[in-house]
Amino acid sequence: MNDLLIAYRLLRKRFRDGTFSKDFYEAFSYAEEKAFFKDLVFGVLRRQEYLDWIINSFLKKKDIPPSIRTVLRIGTYLLLFTNTPKYAAVNETVKLVEKQSFRKLVNAILRNISKLSYIKEPNEIHLKYSHPKWLIEYWKKFLSKDYLFSMLELNLIPPKTTARVNKRKIKREDLKFSNIQFTKHSPYGIIFENFNSSPWELKEYLEGYITYQSESSQLIPLLVDFSPDEYVLDLCSAPGGKATHILEIENVKLYVNDIDANKIEIVKNQFKRLNLTPENFSIKDARKINFDIKFDKIFIDAPCSSLGTARRNPEVLRRQTPENIKKLSRLQKEILNNAWNLLKKDGIIIYSTCTVAFEENTLNSKWLVESKNGKVIDIREKLENFDVKYLWDGYGALFYPDESLTPFYVSLIKRSD
Ligand SMILES: C[S@@+](CC[C@H](N)C(=O)[O-])C[C@H]1O[C@@H](n2cnc3c(N)ncnc32)[C@H](O)[C@@H]1O
Fold first, then answer.
1. CA 417 to ligand 1 centroid distance, Å
2. Distance of alpha carbon 415 from alpha carbon 343, whole angstroms
């Protein structure tokens, strides 16, 4: 089966079911070795609104079957965003059409698009940057213009893979890779330019020298001052990125929790791979969990709407709704509420999300401070030491995205009673 047909089947399923499928995940790893295929699948997802705008400008009747729209999105992407020869892009895409009666139409539209002498640009921001319209309007309400446009621009650029170097084992300067750069903000981060084989089979990964993790995530535990032997709880730990990092940084007594039993197995394997041993694992709902000890630090890397991960997972933009943001913010509030009771006096909650949503970030941090009399810990100087630009809302910071940093929110709130 050729790449184009695999891409079509994946995208077809994706557009029809509206959720991630197992094949989709499998294709991610497969795609690492197939740059063209990966660029095509993610490019079509990333540019969906824009591609539809171009396609619709050539359609008399906009209401076409979803399978035909998928084919047209693929063909239009190949024509406008890849170096595929135009005749091949048209001919190969037309072969994907299953309904014979639509072949002529697809052929005609793609031929017209192939004759465009320049890439047309819409006036509307949501079309130009391929984001849902409601989301742009929502973001405009609480983001600066500069932040919004930086994020929109970057969301169109495929991300590179980043990893964290295990400082217990090696310095990033001593790694023997020829295809990496160092991250700008995280002192332990590396950026892979490319992979010659599967990232999961790299010796450095298998032997615990590196852990794949976004640069933003790497910064979260680095904002915290740990003392040896203090009690630290990670309430929402899977797949273990931050939990394992905490133990790489300091020998704390780490309690690791997640609601999902399968995911906790993944977390356990990550600790094993890194040869690190937490104090305790649990599989409980963070809204209700209780312990017979109290904690010095509690990490809540909350389940969230993940809008800050759009560069890696473009479809998250289409999956989210205003209702879902509200629902998630209620869930997060319940987790924060319970976590507060698990803190020692002077204990600190480290609340983080990988989303850009006012209700989930600012409003929840504000609620915790106001309803519990919590004290905001000012992390601005620390962020500046890491050369991170941010929007500060009086409670926490929303990282500005850049080449390798993705939007991330974090607030540190202390219990002082
Ligand atoms: C953003 S992820 C955490 C990522 C992780 N901290 C890391 O750095 O790798 C959120 C996690 O919260 C878990 N989760 C969702 N609802 C939960 C709940 N009510 N209680 C505990 N964990 C929950 C999910 O299973 C998911 O693994």
1. 28
2. 7
How many domains is the chain partitioned into structurally?
A: 3
Cα separation, 41 vs 27, in Å, equals 9
Residue 207 CB contacts under 8 Å (≥ 6 apart), including other chains: none
Nearest protein Cα to ligand 1, atom 6: 237
For residues 208 and 220, state if they share a domain: no
User: Of 14-28, 66-80, 264-278, which range is least confident?
Assistant: 14-28
pTM for this predicted structure: 0.94
Residues with CB under 6 A from ligand 1: 217, 235-242, 258-260, 263, 285-287, 301, 303
286 C-alpha vs ligand 1 centroid, how far in Å?
9
Would the pLDDT of 1 be above 80? Answer: no
Domain endpoint, select from 192, 212, 232? 212
Distance of CA 284 to the CA centre of its chain: 24
286: phi then psi, degrees, rounded to nearest 5: -65, -15
What is the three-state SS of 3-64?
HHHHHHHHHHHHHHHCCCCHHHHHHHHHHHCCHHHHHHHHHHHHCHHHHHHHHHCCCCCCCC
DSSP-derived secondary structure letter, 100: G
Q: 345 and 231 in one domain? A: yes
Block residue for tokens 């850009």: 356
> Does one domain contain both 235 and 281?
yes
